[in-house]
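From the methods appendix. Each design record in this collection lists the tokenized structure first, followed by the designed amino acid sequence. Records were kept in a plain field format so they could be parsed without special tools. The example shown here is representative of the layout used throughout.

RECORD:
FOLD TOKENS (301 positions):
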């Protein structure tokens, strides 16, 4: 199978390409940067140029596209100077990819986010729930991307994820490790609830999906229950052997963010099992493996 992976320079795209190659698939990576971090066929691709995106996908003629590329700087997306660009990438670029997939008759897997929901209450969001009300511009443009995929295609997967961490790129775990070494005490919000997602584990599921015909909406994070960012940080420091004190604060007490964040990022993943997919491992196990890769585990030499 020939698979085009957008956003290969990011955390998830990097792991997806490596997983495809490990299974013997032909992978073509794309990103805005002219250099790929993965040893595979590559082309630079600017998602704001819809016509160029369609031409490139049609030229590659993949059997499937895994669309990981997106504008993910949530706070910067709120700035007036960036809003049109964010929509061009997350909505327009996605629509261009989907349009090319429709022409080719190939599968498409679109990576979305819990931010498409309003984030209120405590009930986990169902994959097929349409109770959308994004709290910020990033979430709204990702929702528009979802809608474009569903409108243009029949053979598609829309996979919502949350709290992502991986080797290739910036993420919450790396940030907390850095501040934990710099400061004796850190303040972390305790009223935003969800579950982390390790891109190495997620990439395996995504490739399982495109090897199947089980199309539709899905939620995918690691297993292990729902936690707060505060609880996640405490476990990061425990496993990394750091003695940094972690203070729980409310979202209002923390302040700083330009974009509103969902309090309820709980995602119901039962549909994965119902459709025959293996759930991701426990998030604590995923974190341990990730820290070992980074050389940050407490038991390192």
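DESIGN:
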């Amino acid at each position: 199978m020939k698979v085009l992976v957008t956003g290969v320079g990011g955390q998830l795209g990097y792991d997806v390409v490596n997983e495809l190659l490990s299974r013997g698939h032909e992978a073509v990576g794309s990103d805005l940067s002219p250099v790929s971090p993965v040893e595979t066929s590559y082309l630079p691709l600017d998602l704001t140029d819809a016509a160029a995106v369609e031409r490139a996908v049609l030229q590659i003629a993949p059997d499937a596209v895994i669309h990981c590329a997106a504008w993910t700087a949530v706070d910067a997306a709120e700035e007036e100077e960036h809003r049109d660009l964010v929509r061009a990438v997350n909505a327009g670029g996605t629509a261009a990819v989907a349009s090319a997939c429709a022409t080719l008759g190939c599968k498409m897997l679109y990576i979305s986010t819990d931010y498409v929901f309003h984030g209120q209450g405590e009930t986990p969001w169902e994959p097929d729930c349409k109770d959308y009300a994004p709290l910020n511009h990033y979430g709204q443009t990702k929702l528009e991307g979802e809608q474009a995929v569903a409108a243009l295609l029949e053979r598609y997967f829309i996979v919502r994820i949350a709290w992502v961490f991986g080797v290739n790129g910036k993420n919450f775990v790396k940030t907390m490790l850095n501040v934990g070494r710099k400061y004796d005490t850190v303040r972390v919000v305790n009223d935003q609830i969800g579950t982390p997602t390790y891109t190495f584990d997620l990439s395996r599921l995504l490739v399982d999906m495109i090897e199947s015909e089980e199309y539709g909406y899905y939620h995918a994070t690691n297993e292990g229950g729902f936690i707060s960012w505060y609880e996640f940080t405490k476990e990061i420091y425990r496993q990394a052997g750091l003695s940094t004190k972690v203070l729980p604060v409310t979202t209002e007490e923390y302040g700083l963010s330009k974009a509103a964040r969902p309090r309820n990022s709980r995602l119901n993943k039962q549909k994965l099992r119902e459709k025959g997919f293996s759930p991701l491992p426990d998030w604590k196990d995923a974190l341990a493996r990730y820290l070992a890769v980074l050389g940050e585990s407490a038991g390192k030499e």
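APPENDIX NOTE: Residues 109 and 220 are 13 Å apart (CA to CA).
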